[in-house]
Amino acid sequence: MHTLFQENRKTLLLALPLIAGQLSQMLLGLTDTLMVGRVGTVDLAAAAFGNALLHLPFSFAIGLSIAVSIQVAHWFGRGQLRDAGEALRNGLFISVLLAIALMALVCFSIPFLGYLDPPDAVLAIVPPYLYWIGFSFLAMVPTMVIKSFAEAQSEPWMVLWIQLGGVVLNIALNAIFIFGYLGMPSMGLTGAGVATCLARFITLGALFYYLFNSRRLAAALPPLWWRRPERTECRALTKMASPLSGQLLIEIGAFTVSAFLIGQFGATALAAHQIALTCAMTTFMLPLGLSMAVTIRVSHAVSAAQALRCRQIVLGAQCMGIMIMLSCALVYVFLGDRIAAGFTEDLEVVRVTVSILAVVAIFQLLDGIQVISGAALRGMRDVNFPTGILFACFWLIAIPLGAVLGFWASFGALGIWSGLAIGLALASVALSIRLWRKLKCF
After folding, report:
1. ∠ CA 102-103-109 to the nearest 5 degrees?
2. Nearest to residue 162, comparing CAs of 126, 190, 203, 106?
3. I want to staple 375 with a disulfide (CB 3.0 to 4.6 A). Which of 9, 226, 231, 294 is the partner?
């Protein structure tokens, strides 16, 4: 038991800056939503529609960053720091190519937004916002790779402070460009895109400065940056990133389709969905940061062939995850009306949001379980079978069931969210069973 508490302490110490870092990134979207919501319901609905589209390409960036984290953590666990540096160098090369591809994907998809049948008022203002956020991928994707490189070596603190600085900068730029302070014209939703883009590029510059001047990371930096990319390392990263991105596409895609379905119920339902999703994603950063620590620590334990330590890390993290998300669920149940009122003054939007947050409370508890299980499996480099589990639970069960509850049973947006919660419950059970079977065989 004493050893279990020691492992919990180590996991928590690594997880705290990772959680804070994830929350800081989430705050970029949260501040955008809060400030855009003050402009009007249509702008808030447009932000929901645009962000739903952006979540899909964003999943590829996350998949790459997780792959870099796993590769670096395994090399670090074995003491092969130069190989960890090569994972960074090749990961940055892939990140630039990926960012260009994602930017092109976003820009080329804009003329076809009308086929998704959003409200006309939303369609009129969302394209400029998407152009700016699409361009910011050139900064965002390399930022995530550098962040993963540092965190995989248990050096997350300076990255955290840089991210927090980016959040403060984004808030200031939001005020300038959304509301037209300091002589700038009021740009509304477009201003949020401009602010986020500028904040991301400045954050990337700060991370590069830290990377090249950090004594703690110096031993793992590649001696030659401008060599031709190594095919073996690029192939390994791509092979790992592809199913990881697939997992994220499955889950994020389910939320994207849900947003489009909810959009059929009107701007009020879509605005309520955006508020609930923003809240859910914000508190989800707590188990997500914990799961990132689990992936790193499980990778270290697996590379060192420490089976008992691996089990202790996973068990402790699952217990911590459940306690964290239970606390969040209670907040949504008892303070849902106050949370919704903080985003908008539209009473109908508040009413719909409160009903959704009641489902989010259950959803979050289940999500905390599945994200820890999935993270531990990633640390063991088991990524293909979990991808199939997530596909079945979300696309064969959650989406069809949500559509039935939302349209046929007339529950509206609440029905769509209920379907997602049921699918997530099944995913949590299946991934947990898979994890403990793998641990027994390790």
Report:
1. 85
2. 203
3. 294
pLDDT grade, residue 258 (50/70/90)?
confident
CA dihedral 418, 423, 429, 433 (to 10 degrees): -170
* Tokens read off for 6: 């020691």
d(CA 157, CA 161): 6
Cα–Cα dist 273/417, whole Å: 9
For residue 227, what are its two tokens?
A: 């060599």
DSSP 116: G
CA–CA distance, 25 with 69 (Å, rounded to integer): 18
Report the C-alpha gap between 339 and 357 in whole angstroms. Answer: 9
- Quick check: 379 and 302 in contact, CB under 8 A? yes
CA 232, 386, 322, 401 torsion: positive or negative?
A: positive
Which tokens hold the place of 62? Answer: 């996350």
Contact status, residue 47 vs residue 273, Cβ threshold 8 Å = no
Q: Which residues have CB under 8 Å from 417's CB, separation 6+?
A: 258, 273, 276, 356, 359, 360, 363, 402
Give the pair of three-digit tokens for residue 419.
Answer: 């379907």
Per-residue pLDDT, averaged over 10-24, amounts to 77
Average pLDDT over the chain, rounded to an integer: 84
